Structure formats: structure tokens, C-alpha cells
Amino acid sequence: xxxxxxxxxxxxxxxxxxxxxxxxxxxxxxxxxxxxxxxxxxxxxxxxxxxxxxxxxxxxxxxxxxxxxxxxxxxxxxxxxxxxxxxxxxxxxxxxxxxxxxxxxxxxxxxxxxxxxxxxxxxxxxxxxxxxxxxxxxxxxxxxxxxxxxxxxxxxxxxxxxxxxxxxxxxxxxxxxxxxxxxxxxxxxxxxxxxxxxxxxxxxxxxxxxxxxxxxxxxxxxxxxxxxxxxxxxxxxxxxxxxxxxxxxxxx
Length: 252
Description:
Elements: H1 8-39, H2 47-58, H3 60-65, H4 77-93, H5 104-116, H6 118-128, H7 133-156, H8 166-180, H9 192-209, H10 217-245
Helix pairs in contact: 1-2, 1-4, 2-4, 4-5, 4-6, 4-7, 5-9, 6-7, 7-8, 7-9, 8-10, 9-10
């Protein structure tokens, strides 16, 4: 007998179940690791709760934007890699408030692994044919959150002044500016320059957090990444302003 065609609602339910299971497994892994570290007195007893609370908030947009992953009915390996990076960033963020003693090298190691996996999710999506607007947006938002977390740790550990938070906040400020000035929210064509600056931003912040990098050199390294980011945003604003004056120049 021929199986009846699967409806869009059926695919949506299957996708949401798979995504929920993926998030639950990520939360279980993060919580278990946090409990183990707390039990060994390496972190405070509140750390697992903080880490899971941050992940719960960070995962909310997944449910909101999941419809953009259709017609795929599975969350997919690529998105699970991105989810693992998101969980790692949430675990790092939960270190705020914890004594920094002995954390620097583990943080550098986790951050380096998360950064190295950044290109893996896109490659997996293309290989398995699971690319989608949701996956691209999920990857981009995870990158932005990861950078903000690294910047917050650099500030909390006195590796740089409060200005280092701009490394992570600049993208969110740009989004807010787009709400006030719609021309700033116009689409931009993909750019290798943006990708390179993102890699440089992460690399400089990880180098800033390394135990071997002491102030003021850590601040100088972080400032290099922030300067590159500021130039990149300035170039995008100029392109958007030109597209506002000459609509034919806007990417299609």
C-alpha cells in the first residue's frame, strides 16, 4: 500500500519533537557537567542552576524561529552542532560570579573548541542537504552570543576595561538602530570580510583570556579586534546608506 503523503503539520510536529529532544539532551549534558564540577568544589553549588537557566533563555528563539527550517522534519546534525556551541557559550557565561582561579585554561580550551566547530555546522548542512534560513540565523545568533560571552569574561577577569563589552554589544546595537532607522535593517550581501572579522574577533578575545596574556597586552589585543569590528560595521553602514540613495545598488 502507498503511504499517505505527510502533511505540513505532521512535518512541523516531527521537527518540533526532534528539536525539543535535542535541546533536552544539550541541557542534560550541561547540567551533568555542572553538577560534576560543583561536586568536586571546582565551581559553586549554584553553577549548574545558572548554566541551565541561561541555556533555557538562550534556547527560546529556537522554538520561535523553527518554522523557517521546514520542509525538513529533523533538527539535523548541523543544528545540533550549533546547539552544542550555544550550550558551551551558556556554560561559559554562567562562570560570571565564579572565582576565576584555575578557570582560564579550561575556558580557553572550551572556547577554542567552540570556535573551531563554527565552520562545521555549515559544512554539515550543505553535505546533508539540510540548509535552511533557520540554520543560517541560528548560527549567526550563536556567534553573536558567543562573542558577547567572551567579552563579558574578559571584562569580569579584568583583562580589559568595560569598553570590551562593545565587542559583543555592537551587533545588538546595530539591530536596535535598524528598528529606529529601517534603512539600516536592509539585507546585506554575504561578505567574506564579515566572516574574517568574526573569526578575528573570537581569536582576539580568546587570546585576551589566556593566562599568558596579562594587562595591558590583553587590552591591546582586545582593542585590535574591536577596531576591526568597528571598521566592518562602518563599511556596512556606508553600503546601506548608499543603497538608500541608490536602490539599484541593494543586494537582491
